[in-house]
Each structure stands twice: as C-alpha cells, then as structure tokens.
Design goal:
Blueprint lengths: L11 H8 L2 H5 L2 H4 L4 H20 L5 E6 L5 E5 L16 H7 L22 H7 L1 E10 L2 E8 L2 E2 L4 E5 L4 E8 L11 H14 L4 E6 L6 E6 L3 H9 L11 E7 L2 E9 L6 E6 L2 E2 L5 H20 L12 H4 L3 E9 L4 E2 L5 E2 L3 H20 L1 H34 L20 E6 L1 H10 L5 E6 L6 H9 L3 H10 L16 E5 L4 H17 L1 H5 L3 E4 L4 E5 L2 E5 L2 H11 L6 E4 L8 H9 L6 E3 L5 H12 L3 H11 L9
The structure holds ligand 28F.
C-alpha cells in the first residue's frame, strides 16, 4: 500500500491555526483599538454582537449581560447554540475553531451571517486571546457542552456536562490584566452601548446586570419601535416641533437602510449613523447621502409649495438641519471602514442608495403631512434669516470699526470731540426738531441723529427684521459698539445717549420703542447708565420782558400762583419740539447748565423684562389690562 503522500500545502486556515492567536496578544490595538478602558469594553461588544447576529438570523430573542463580582463578564443568549460538530478540515469542534482561530466564526462560508458588528466581527477568538480565563457553555441537541480557554489556548476538551431541553450559548471571560490598563468595567459605558444595540435591532431584549455591589443593578433594553424609539429617546429633553417621528426603510441587493428623524425647537443638530450596528462616529458615505438628499428634498418642496420664491436663495444644509434629530442605520455585507478610528463608512454605493431612499421618502412625508411640512419649512427659513441677520450684524460692526467714521449715517450731525466720555448724541424725533437741534447745539460735544417717525417694534419684529430697519441701523453705526453678543462697550462713541421726543403720546411711544431696542439688543447701554431722556418744557410763560419755562403741570400751577397777579401773562403749551426755535431748544433742553435729563436705569430685571414684553409684545390682553389699571395715573394724555 503506497505511503499516502503527506499533503505539504497548508491552506490559509491551517496556517492561521498554526500561527494561533499570538499576533493578537502582541498587537491587541490592531484588533480592539486600544488596551485602555475603551478596548476593554470592546471585548463585551464582540461577544454580544455574536448573540445579536444570532438574533438577526431570527433564532435569539434574549441576551443577558452580567458584570460579575470579580469583574468577569458573562453573556448568554437563547439562540441555537454554537455548532459543536467537528470542523471538516481541522478535526476539532466548530466551537473550538470559533474560539481559537483568528477571524473565525461568523464568516465561515457566509451562510446567512452578516458581518457581525463590533470591530469588524473578529469575534470570540480575540476575546479568548486577551482573557486570562474564558469558558463557553452550549445548549444544543438536548445536551450541555462546555469548554475552557485561556490567553488564546484551549484548556479543556469539549465535554458534555448535562442535559437540557433548551438551546443557546453562554460565555464567561475575565480580561487579562497583563494586557489591559484597567480590567474594571464601567456600567454606564455598557448601558449606553447596549441601549443603542437594542434601539438598532428592534425587538431584541437585552438585560444588563451588575453584581459587584450587594444589591445587583439591573437594566432592560427592549424597543419594538427600534430607531423610531431611539429618536424619541434622544428628544426626550427637547421639544419636538412635529408630533410624528419620520421613519422609512428600504433594502436592495445586499444593502439595507433604515432612517428615523424628528425636528425639535433646539438649535443644534443630532445625527447618529451606524453601519452593521457599528457607531460610525466619523460619518461616511451613508451620512453624506442622507444630508445631501435632505437638503435637496427640502428645497424642492419649499420651492414647489411657494415657501421659497423664485429668486430666493436655497436654504443651506445647516439651516435645514437646525433642530434635527436623526438616526441612520445601514447594513451591508462587505463594509469598508476608514478614518482615524475606523468608524467612517467608505462604501460609495451607500451614498447613492441612502440618497435615493431619503429623497423619495422625505418628499412623500411632506406631501402626505402638509401641516407638519409647513412647520418644518418655517423652521428652516427662520434659521436662514437668523443666520443672515447675525452675518449682517457682524458685518456691520466689522465695517464700522474697520472704516471708522467713514460709514456713519448721512443723517448724523456728528460732534468734533473724539473723547466719548464727554461726547453726547441726541436721538431727535422728527426732521424739524432735528434741524433746530443741529442749529442750536454745542457742535464740539453734541451730535444729533434725527429719527423719522416711529422706529420698528423689535419686541415683535425680531432680530432679522430689526436689522433691515434703516433707523435702527443708523443708531447702531452711530453708537459704534455693535449689538447683541457683538456688543463692545469700549467702542461706544458717546457716553450720553439722549432720547429727545415730543412731550406727547407719540413721543412717549417712540421713546418706549427706543428703550425696547436698547433693552433687548444693547442692554449694557442702560445697565452702565449711558441712556438718558431729555425733558423739553411743557409751557412757556411770558410776562412783559420775563420768560419762564415749566416742565410739569404742578410746576406750571406753582408758577402761575407765584406770578399770576399783575401784568398780563402770555402762556404757550408746547405740543412738540418743532414749536421751539433753535435757541429755545438749546436753552430749555440741551444747555448743560439749565437742562433736565432723566437717566434710564433697570432697577428690577424681571419687572423690566415683563414690562417690555407686555407693553411691546404680541399679546394684547396683558397690555390692555396694564393700561386699564394705570390710565388713572396719566396726566397729560392728549387725544
Ligand atoms: C454569548 C455569545 O456567540 N452565540 C452564537 C451561534 C449560533 C450559530 C453559530 C453562533 C455558522 C457557520 C460559523 C447555530 N446553528 N453568544 C454567541 N450563536 N454561531 S455564535 O454558527 C457559527 C457560524 O459557522 C449557529 C446553526 N447555524 C449557526
């Protein structure tokens, strides 16, 4: 009988077996990313992902993860149980191959197993290599099988230890302190990861137990709603602007895509993306596909439904994603991971696949839910306006400081003094009073900015409209200190800002509008005491050559009592600043030595805030109530 020729060719698998798991212990970072706490927790994800794969195959419903007292981990599932029959070529049980051959498990000839999650499904063999102890118990064929391993080596033969009428796999491993910086597990890290796994695999039930304390700590994760519920969970501390979570899924060839999204009132975007249950924190082609598709679908719908006019610019991606919470989960057989931490999906086909699925489904949702679509459209457009307004404000402040006085408004009659501490600016109502003020003023220290009619009510108009008001823009550039969070007190050009309006209802309203603007957008002006209200006279009383001015009704009564008898009195009630000529305006209201100025202060923030909102805001009832309650205190209300 001729000697059977010894087959000298080893196949890749046999070479792999000969090499063993030494490479893993030499360079663990290559297989689990690091040997820090992060790498330690990856061991758990590897084992859990094998149970998840068994669940995705439809055979496992429950997974239990336990942190034991000695910081070993046990994971158990109720799947079919790892195969125990001998591997045809290697002559050892399949379960032993899975635990001792690198890159084994999950990928033997495909067979309904998608590449499992974790760090690219390197599976149980890596965990064995990096554990000082590991054991597996399989319930299958009515028997319980058990085998032990340590640091990649087999420590016992696979043996039958009992009978059972259930099936499943139970694994226990104790990470090797020779490898890891720490072998203490963090409950909250496992909690976050297992909760995400349950969201990403709807219907799976995962139990997490921590037995290291007297009282075991137990959490269960089970979400029939899958990533819909994930979005609800992410939004639980935010205010959704639509009742529904938008959800859609599609599969094609060997790609699957599942997306859930919902807008909220917040200004930030939260978009999580996964590939084969791996958190693709560096994004990738699936995320790019989603974002470009959403921007296109949004603008198409906005134009088609006249939210955007013909020549309106399209909304940008960040405007459209403001307040958006979304979860994108894709599954594919041959994922390519790139990037610094190998968490960026590289497969180009996923970009076009996710793009087409997203455009079709987002447009469909908008068309089937026009009310929710309207709310979403308006949110995106408001974001665009706010961004544009903020840009203008920056631009304005920058331009003003860059070009200095070159950009001052034409209507401003500036003063020659450059020292702001002794410079003043009068904001004067109406061009005629403005003309008298320019003529009568002290040109060295007093600037005049005439205002034409009522300025915008910023309480109602909001940021973007405010910046389109010429009157408001003139004040901003004249003051030179910017607004909102661009406000810079050191750039203020006048340390007295004096509001000079008619002593009538209109004048009072204009004054209130200006105070509202200062309070909402340049509050430090008031806080630091830069804002004043001029006090023009109410009456002019001539008696022979003598002229008197009075500034209130009681002052007028007192004067008349004092000089009433004797020569004829000529009394004039001023209806507006415009009735005074330049010299009278100077003498009565602007002359440093004789004028009266009221300094505006904020004694009580809350009250001020409420008063402005109530007096100037949208809601009429509170304003009506305030006027009814306070009308009796009004003295010179002219109708
Ligand atoms: C606690 C960790 O690892 N569970 C697993 C199975 C079930 C099968 C399997 C695993 C298929 C062909 C490689 C059983 N019966 N929990 C786990 N449960 N692996 S890992 O098969 C291994 C792959 O070779 C299984 C029929 N088909 C598959």
């Amino acid at each position: 009988m001729p000697e059977t020729k010894v087959n000298q060719e080893y196949n890749a698998e046999q070479i792999q077996v000969l090499e063993g798991l030494e490479p893993v212990r030499k360079r663990p970072g290559m297989y689990i990313g690091s040997t820090s706490s992060t790498g330690l927790h990856h061991l758990v994800y590897e084992i859990v992902d094998n149970s998840v794969d068994e669940a995705l195959a439809g055979y496992c419903k429950n997974i239990e993860v336990t942190i034991e007292k000695d910081n070993s981990i046990t994971v158990e599932d109720d799947g079919r149980g790892m195969p125990v029959d001998n591997h045809p070529k290697l002559g050892i049980p399949a379960v032993e191959v899975i635990h001792t051959v690198l890159h084994a498990g999950g990928k033997f000839g495909g067979g309904g197993y998608k590449v499992s999650g974790g760090l690219h499904g390197v599976g149980a063999s890596v965990v064995n290599a990096l554990s000082e102890e590991m054991q597996v118990r399989i319930r299958r064929n009515g028997k319980v099988y058990e085998q032990k391993y340590s640091r990649g080596e087999t420590r016992s033969k696979l043996e039958v230890t009992g009978k059972t009428d259930t099936t499943g796999t139970w694994t226990r491993f104790k990470p090797d302190p020779e490898i890891f910086e720490t072998t203490v597990f963090d409950f909250s890290v496992l909690e976050k990861s297992l909760r995400e796994t349950a969201f990403l695999n709807k219907g799976i039930r995962i139990l997490l137990t921590d037995r290291r304390e007297e009282e075991p700590k137990v959490l269960e994760f089970h979400y029939e709603g899958g990533i819909r519920q994930f979005v609800e969970y992410l939004n639980q501390k935010k205010e959704p602007v639509t009742p529904d979570v938008i959800y859609f899924e599609a599969s094609r060839d060997d790609c699957e895509c599942e997306i859930a999204m919902q807008y909220t009132k917040s200004y930030s975007e939260t978009i999580l993306s996964y590939a084969n249950n791996i958190d693709t924190s560096e994004g990738g082609t699936h995320l790019v596909g989603f974002k470009t598709a959403l921007t296109r679908a949004f603008n198409d719908y906005a134009r088609k439904n006249k939210f955007l006019k013909e020549n309106d610019p399209s909304l940008s991606g960040e405007d459209i994603r403001e307040g958006l919470t979304a979860v994108i989960s894709v599954k594919l057989t041959e994922p390519q991971f790139e990037g610094q931490t190998k968490t960026k999906l590289g497969n180009s086909e996923m970009r076009s696949f996710v793009d087409s699925v997203t455009v079709d489904n987002v447009i469909r949702f908008f068309e089937e839910n026009p009310k929710q679509a309207k709310v979403i459209m308006e949110k995106g457009m408001a974001a665009a306006r706010a961004r544009e307004a903020a840009r203008k404000a920056r631009e304005m402040t920058r331009r003003k400081s860059a070009l200095d006085s070159m950009t001052l408004p034409g209507k401003l009659a500036d003063c020659s003094e450059k020292d702001p501490t002794i410079s003043e600016i009068f904001i004067v109502e109406g061009d005629s009073a403005g003309g008298s003020a320019k003529e009568g003023r002290d040109r060295k220290r007093q600037a005049i900015l005439p205002l034409r009619g009522k300025i915008l009510n910023v309480e109602k108009a909001g940021y973007e409209k405010m910046l389109n008001s010429q009157e408001i823009k003139n004040m901003i550039t004249a003051f030179g200190c910017g607004i909102g969070n661009e406000f810079d007190e050191s750039k203020l050009r006048y340390h007295k800002i004096i509001i000079m309006t008619d002593a009538d209802v209109d004048g009072a309203h204009i004054c209130t509008l200006m105070l509202t603007f200062f309070y909402r957008f340049m509050r430090p002006l008031i806080e630091k005491g830069y804002v004043y209200i001029a006090q023009p006279p109410l009456y002019k009383v001539d008696q022979g050559k003598q002229t008197y001015y009075t500034y209130s009704e009681e002052e007028q009564r007192a004067l008349l009592q004092r000089i009433g008898e004797g020569k004829k009195l000529d009394i004039q009630r001023y209806k507006g600043l415009g009735e005074m000529d330049a010299s009278q305006l100077w003498e009565t209201t602007m002359d440093y030595n004789t004028r009266t100025l009221i300094k505006v202060t904020i004694d009580n923030y809350e009250e001020a805030d409420e008063t402005f909102s109530m007096l100037m805001g949208e809601k009429v009832p509170p304003r009506r109530k305030f006027i009814e309650e306070n009308a009796k205190y009004v003295q010179n209300l002219d109708i």
